[in-house]
Amino acid sequence: MLTRLGLRLRIFLFFCLLAAGGAALAAGALWLGWSRAEAALPTAPFVTAFVVFAFVNTGLALGVWLLFDEYVAKPINTLSASLRLRAHAGVDSAVDAEAARYLGDLAPAAQALTESVSSTVMDSAAHVAQETRRLRSESDRLTALLTEMPLATILLNPSLEIVLYDAQAADVLARVAPPRLKAPLADYYDLAPLRAAMDRLSPETPEAAFDLPDPTGATAHDARVKALGDDGFIVFIEVAARDHPQPAPRPLVFDFDLMTSPGTQEISDTPLRDLSFVPFDTETTGLSVAQDAIVQIGAVRVLGGRIIEGEEIDTYVDPGCPIPPAATRIHKVGDHHVRGAPDIGAAGRALHHFARDSVLVAHNAPFDIGLLRRFAPEMGVEWPHPVVDTVLLSAVVFGTNAEHSLDALCARLDVTLPSDLRHTALGDARATAEALVKLLPLLEGKGIGTFGQLVQETGRHGRLLEDLNA
Fold first, then answer.
1. pTM, full prediction
2. Which residues contact 152 (CB under 8 A, 6 or more apart)?
3. Same domain as 401, residue 348
């Protein structure tokens, strides 16, 4: 039980025990002296002496604890956070020797150790970077090749979830909803024609043609499906040049770890690395959840502990009212930006589809989630998603006494937050996602491996923010 308490709280309880033990010993000594007195003595002086001693003893214990907390407990927490940043998040921050000056040689020794380890890691990182450049070059060639072909390519795992899509496929999927990895293809299309084509596949018939209608039924794409043994399926969708101009360069989006889709399990038992996260942010007409409106939404996706490049939402939202100049000065969104933009109903539905089967992530989440839930009737959806607040994650990793603003968190995690992107929805969403990616290994390093464990730990900091998973 005690091991689950924070270091500073355990030290405080230790000094409380010392104060209580001292008071108990004093009470016992006074009682022994009074009981052995030869003549009956009044008890009032003994009681007065005990009260004075207990008061002074408690004050002394409290004073010593404050000094111990300031010069020992806090520096130990700071030192451990710095070491975890280096070990788990790759943040090359120097050990704060000044903060740990009362810990003797501990801080210099920790710095020497981390520098030695960093030297070895840097050698390995140089080799990894070289291989990464080679693989990226090959990926760029494959992307260019697929872009030139008049076919949209989608790779599906055996559960018919999207594992890979190219630029043409991204544009085709975006006609229905924002494309996303791990999404069931059924989120975009009626799969009855595809399943009928799959039933026709055999060793003698490795491919089968079918029509892939969009949800409105207005158009249908000529498509083919090919089985990849027991590993899944690949779908080719013909793209007519007259209807589909050459797409802008876009990375090939894939995650082959998704080829083996894990079985369904309770989210509380799901490892953090297996979850899909959607860090998002909103810019608004003001700071009131009850009265103000959304003018911009930005969102990205984190899957497998990494940001999925190319999967994002960045849209203005028509609030249906003038944007106050005071709000425009902060987020630089004016009335001319939102003129002709989708209303909150359309923009909210797009975000809802983008975040399907995902954990929503925000910095100071009660504000942003509160707005989504307030406008849910206009969107025609509900927002039952699990929620992660990076304010609470910061408190879990760095302690409640640390500053937990987005700027402070990004600085601590060595996340670049350009000033021109600060207070833009996509810029803040991207910064929140990068912070989340670096916080996940720090949480795992503290033994927090599943979503249920994370909710339990963040619930301990409910005095900072409302726990939206309660």
1. 0.74
2. 165, 166, 168, 169, 171, 172, 221, 236, 237, 238, 239
3. yes
